[in-house]
Design a protein that fits this description.
With 315 residues, the protein is α/β, with parallel strands linked by helices. It has helices at residues 21-41, 88-100, 115-124, 149-163, 192-200, 206-224, 235-247, 258-265, 272-285; strands spanning 3-8, 45-50, 65-68, 71-74, 81-83, 106-108, 111-113, 134-139, 170-175, 288-298, 303-312. The protein has an eight-stranded mixed sheet, sandwiched between helices. The protein has a three-stranded mixed sheet with strand order 5-4-7. Helix 4 (149-163) packs across helix 9 (272-285). It is globular. The termini are close together.
Length: 315
Amino acid sequence: MTQALVCMSHSPLLEHANPDPEVKAQVEAAFDQARQFVSDFDPDLVINFGPDHYNGFFYDLMPPFCIGYEAYGTGDYDSFAGKLDVPTEIAEKLAQHVIDRDLDTAISRRMEVDHGAVQPMEVLYRGDVTAKPVIPIFINSVAPPFSKVQRVRKFGEAIGDYFKNTDKKVLFIGSGGLSHDPPVPQIATATPEQRAMLTNGRNPTPEARAARQARTIATAEAFARGEADIMDLNPEWDRAFLDVCRSGQVEGFDAYDPEEMNRVAGHSSHEVRTWVAAYSALRACGEYEVSYEFYKPIPEYIAGFGITTAVLKNA
């Protein structure tokens, strides 16, 4: 059939922060554009490239990529908690296809996904995360060491290659970014308590989860006042990245260097790897054009906030 794409920033602060009402209205209008796009496309299957924020993946075993055969929402920040509708047989064949392309990937028969993966489905389907069958694909975007962005591109291309001749309508989603530097501990500078959480922080107590979330919310409030000790957003970097997305020349992603991304766009700017994978998957299906783009730096969400949709030119 055909393929399409939605890439969007996510933020656990959507329901926990209060930007200017005009900004909130602009974001909601952009969400409406994406919802209408997805409604009109009406996919049979969603391929959801998402990161994790030490809720499902930890340093006890941190793969660069992982394809979920079954998946469950962790419920962080009041996000979806429950089982996703994952077509296991398709996910199994997809993983084998990727491996046959000489690209190693982990697989999970019980993947845990957090707000970074489920929020796009919540937004696009107004809370109904199980509205469509979805294959969640984890892209490590928080925990160094990072694979080359070129490798992410090739991984996305392998995913797209599997679906380019499918009889289903497939929607590729990339979730995360753009520039941002939220208060996520770094393993190199972590305290012993933080290091324990980063290594195996599964199933935190309600009190521990609430405390972690409260720290993020407090940092966002301070950041909006210009008082937080985190990096500023970088709209220039964000717009340059969007230019590459729009160009259709996905090889342009190869120039992105992890250390430079840390330095100029923040430690969580690596979440754009999900966009790289999604755009590369779509490009493997054919030449595309971006049909909608929204961008605004939003300190209250600690994010250079972007939303794009794209379609194949021959669709």
